[in-house]
Amino acid sequence: MHFIPELQTEMASHNDLGHIGECKAAAFLQQKGYSILHRNWKYGDLEVDIIALDRDEIVFVEVKTRSTYQWGNPEQAVDELRKRRLTAAANIYLKVNKLDNPFRFDIISIVMNPNEQNIDHIENAFALRPHYYGARSMLPESRWSKSYWKKRK
User: Fold this and answer.
1) What phi and psi, each to the nearest 5 degrees, are found at residue 108?
2) What's the pLDDT tens digit per position in 92-144?
């Protein structure tokens, strides 16, 4: 955990807190020597909070910001669906940009409120996930119709 000394603001709304957290995460990564390539990169309904370069490795970063630990650590909010969506976004990003760099998925977990301000960088937080095909991809395979698979081939 790292202390974030410069944040001394009133409690922000949910969206403001998330935006402030993403700004802090980008600054934190830059201090560690990363180059920020994109912030809030979107493709259709997929989004990556930060795409950075660590030496020659592309890093897809999910930022989770909370005001307390009341509901657990912020990184616990990165569930299986979110991991699949990040994997799908990473695959598209690499393909669209014709990149063959090594890559990884990191999570930056931030808790900030008037009493505490901590940032935790979890490098290589998870491995590639199976493809994301929308909300139906989270159903057990036995419930997927044959017509669903025909569209994917």
Assistant:
1) -110, 120
2) 999 999 998 999 999 999 998 888 889 999 999 998 876 655 555 544 444 44
* Domains of the chain by residue range: 2-152
Question: Which of 3.30.930.10, 3.90.1150.10, 3.40.1350.10, 2.60.40.10 is the CATH number of 2-152?
Answer: 3.40.1350.10
